[in-house]
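User: Before I run my own analysis I want an independent prediction to cross-check against. Here's the chain; please return only the structure tokens and, at the end, one sentence I can use as a sanity check.
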Amino acid sequence: MKALTLLANGRLEVLNSSPPEPLSPDSSLVRVCAAGVCGSDIPRGFQNGAYHYPLVMGHELSGIVEEPSSESSFAKGALVTIFPLLPDMSESVNQIGEYALSKNYDYFGSRRDGGFQEYLSVPEFNLLPVPEGVDPAHASMTEPCAVAYHAVDKPDISSGMSAAVIGGGPIGNMAAQWLRMRGCRSVIVSEPDEKKRNIAENMGFSVIDPIADNPVEAIRDITGGGADVVIEACGLPLTFRQALGSAGLFGQVVFMGNIHGDFTLPEPEFSAMLRREITIHTTWNSKVAPRGRDEWTRVLAAMQNELNLEPLISHRIGLDEGPEVLESMFKKTLWYNKVIFTDGN
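Assistant: Structure tokens:
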């Protein structure tokens, strides 16, 4: 079995290993069909961000059930997506299904080996069925799609509202799509990368180049005073400020980006925020409970007709290309949007 293995900081190699042992009595052996590269995988692999070495990264996954456990509801050959968090069910917050907010958990691709390999042993709890006709590469994007869905579910959105997304990467674009599906009449995407901006524009969103234009002023001009809903999808102190400044009267701001750096707000901007009575929402990860009516199930259903994910995929690659491609992503010598390992060979 091939596995793209992080042996030390900045050192990735494709190694041969034995198929994984069952993780639990109810675990099934899954052949990984597609594994997306998350933005968090780059600092994990190249900026001393790993919990331990060696490590197989990868937590955005879809696969085929090769050997279902005796307790599994999935048949051999079923296409599934994998919820990467393995909760400690004795923790109280998990009793109400808030697994992402727990403190004691395991996690495929960071705390334990993940999906940048051919096979993975997965507990029944972590498997979700993929609807008929959904591309396995798209199914591997369920996790980031659900993160975006969870963020957009925070504000109170009514049909006809205006909305803006600060950051047009894959998750930002997904958030923009969810906002449009919720009925927002105008969705603006602020993104400095021209190619990502073009993708958003070709998908029917209004776009702003924050390098050429002040995004706060531009969003205020387009919306006539400020957006009703603003999603921050970059995680930069500057874009946090832009999100707050772009909201109109009684506007709602969602901080989705995992912030890098200290965030401070000058007094005039804070005062202006108070005078507009802005509501601030924070968000973290996504929910798989109650099963069947959860965010992941909603995302998977939308992949059949509503979500447009193919334009976001810039690279479909094999595991053998992994060391070179991931290093190029870290060094920024390769333009990329969503990179997905699609063969597992």
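Sanity check: The radius of gyration is 20 Å.
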